[in-house]
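Handout, section B. The chain below has 75 residues.
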Amino acid sequence: MGRLAGFHYREIVKRLKAFGFTFDRQAAGSHEIWYNEVEDRYTTIQNHSGDMPGGTLRAILKEAGISPNDFLKKK
């Protein structure tokens, strides 16, 4: 299991908020759009129960401009 595997939606959102992201709008199905006004960046997050796959979380972080190391250090 990779370092980014095993995170739940709530923990991901908590850490994204610490990076300045806020909920922007609901997208198709269970997807949400989050926005960081300071960095002018958007990212899409799937809101579902269970663990987020590591590859999916890595894609979210790339879209948000957050390095995996910085994400793991944020509490």
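Note. The CA atoms of residues 29 and 73 lie 30 Å apart. Compare this with the example in section A.
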